[in-house]
Each structure stands twice: as C-alpha cells, then as structure tokens.
Task: structure prediction
Amino acid sequence: MVFGNQTLWDIALNERRNILKNVSEGHSDSTNIASESHLLVCGSKDAGKTSLIQRFLERDETPKPTVGLDFCYGRKSKQNNMSQVKDVAQIWELGGGSSMSKLLDVVITPSNIRKLSVVLVLDLSKPDQLWETQETLLNQIKQRIKQVITEASKTDTNIENDLKDRAWRRVGKNHTDKNTITPLLVPLVIIGAKSDLYQDLSSDKKEMLSKTIRFLALLNGGMIQFFSTKAEGLTSRAKNVLNHLAFASNLSKTSCIEHTKPIIVPYGMDTLQQIGAPPISADRLVKARRGGLPYDLWSDTYLSVFPSQKEVKDEKKNPATDKQFADEIVDTIRVQKDEELERYRKVSARKAKEAQLNASVGTKQKKK
Result:
C-alpha cells in the first residue's frame, strides 16, 4: 500500500527512526529501547560467509549456498532497572562473489549508513581470484556509500563529516600513513577465510598474500582477522570481531603480522613501514612501477605472483555484447534474465524493509 510517495513500510521505519532520535537527544531513557546495527557480509564465492554468520549467531545448521541476498538477525540482551531489552544486529549476506554487487543498494541506504559495517570475506585458498573480488566489491561499496551520503546530506548536512571523523578515530587521526590512507566511511573488517588451507602455500606465497591483504586493509582503514572453521581459536576471535561490530563490545588489541601464522591486525595497528615493499625481486619490482602509486605497485606485483581468474568478465570481451555473436533466441532469453534480476533486486529491497521492521518490532521491552 502506498501513501503519497511512501509505502507503509517506509512510514513504519520513519516512525522507528524518530523514536531512536528522541532517545539520542535525551527525550527518553536509552536503556528502555534497543539499539540497532547493520552488517553487510560479502566477499569471495564459497568462502564460508554463511558459516561465519552461523558461528556468530551460534546456530548449528548445515550451511547452504547463498543465492543473491540473504537476511538474518541476532539479538543481545541488556538489562535496566525494570526490564530486559534486546539490541538487534541486522545481517545481510551477499552471495555470488562479486557478481551480485548490484544488490548493494538494497543494503546500503540513507537510513542505516550511520550504523552500517562491512565484513569483506576473502578466500585465502583461491589467491588468484582474491584481487579482483576485493577490487570489484570495495569499488562498488565506495560508490554506493557516496551516493547514499549525497542523498542523506539533503536532510542531514553533517553526515559526511561525522562519518569521516569516526573513520579517522578508528584508524588514528595522527597515523603515520595518514596521507596514504583513505578510510572507508563505515567500519571495514577483512576476514581471511580458510586460513587452514593458506598454511599449505609456500612461504613466499604466504608472505605475498598476507602482506597484500595488510596493505589493502591499511589503505582502506580496515582491520584483519584470519578465520577457519577448523580452528576454534580463530573462530572465537572472528565471533568477537562481529560482536564488536554488532553490539559495540570491546575489541581485542592482539596483533599478529607474521606471515607464517594467521594474520590479526586491529584498526590503526599497521603501517607501510611494517608491511614493507612487495616481496619480489628488485628487477620485477622495477618493472612493476607502472604508475608510481602504491595501489598500482601492489596490484602489479600481486598479479604477477597470482595471475587473476576474474569472476566478472570484462564487458569488452563478453560475447553477450558482441554483435558478431548475436543470436535472436539467446539474446531474447538474456533480456528476460536481466529483467528477472531487476525484479529480484526490487523484491529483495522490499523484503529487506519488511525484515528490518520485523527485527525492530522484536526489540520491544520484555520483562524477565
């Protein structure tokens, strides 16, 4: 049902935001209302994103492949003098690696940008796909955040400055490499998944892979946590990281940058000096300096060791867009599939609003 330019769900969500605003401005007791957080979990296909979420929510279920966009939520109780209230973490999982990045606009919205965190899961067992995955997803996320800020700033003029201030507080406003870092405007955690298989790589390849991930995290103002479902200690640490993003729990300052071990780097705890130059020969390093920018240098050197297996094909090399491969029947079916994807995107957006409202309703006060 539509009222003016708003659906019933839009009106309900706006009412919820007004209640939260009153709390933040001191017009209500903050212990009497639940807080909300939003987590976007995305990354490599079949890397274990669902397993990570299930471990965090302590659900004993057999993971199933995620198609498109999936939603779930978790709750955590907090106690006041009269009743028990539950904070809620709304969790979206983007399936399909980087191929479903168009669905990011369903998750990243003006209504949740201040409470959003990004968990980028990279498959350490497939280093030849890692660079393209992170590049595609991070670029799409940054582009979407920029669009959302432009839209939100029409009614919230301080939003961009506030998000930048928070980002630099995570990294450290006086960080040694502040002139190189461009922090993502929402908290970013890079999860190195399947770290048990990472240990099977040669020492040289482990060094290249770990240092590259450290560089990417530093450049984007993020933190790193390696993860494996086969290592209880790493599983526990990964759960603690998600708990910090979802419910603002304390974050461990433990750090490990030794490439022979699982990498753990909290926000602001790494530097370009500690990372060093890409671990390749001097001759190859000189040949790789194509643009002089650190990102280009690391891109060239990483891809020289792990040649890319792109998840998303270059549009210019895509036969579907090449007229010499035109086929009326195939092209008609492809148009239908594109239309189905757009309908799926719209349905996902509606379901996300419904799920967000249902999760919010479940956070009302409850007596023991």
Notes: Residues 328-361 form the longest helix (34 residues). The radius of gyration is 22 Å.
